[in-house]
Amino acid sequence: MDDLRELYQQLILDHNQNPQNFRTIEHATSTVNGHNPLCGDEITLYIYVEDDVVNDVSFQGSGCAISKASASIMTTIIKGKTVREAEKIFEQFHTMITTGESSGNMGKLEVLAGVHKFPARVKCAVLSWHTLNNALLGKTELTTTE
Ligand code: ZN
Asked: Is-above-0.70 flag for pTM?
């Protein structure tokens, strides 16, 4: 339990209480809803892509500390990246969160590497990322972790 408490503390301090880009984008090029029924996390993700660059990304929703912190950190990292770069970061993040193995250049996302030890929490952490990936691919149906 100590590991989990430590993980929560770090996440909550960094992003849960003060999430970044927690807002809507009025003229979003893609808006996708995501749902993690296992925990009850809900997210609406907005992206604004222009000339193949994710110029803006934001989210709204409610959920546990991990889902919210993960979404918050994600927006800060993805903003300004090309669609291709964003997809690559998603793949690296997905590997890290499911195996604990990091490519070493995940920056602030490293804080989430410990989540792989808690399989039920992995879905909380990946919800916003799967939702982002679908938004990048232009898939606008509900994204679910189940
Ligand atoms: Zn959750």
From this structure: yes
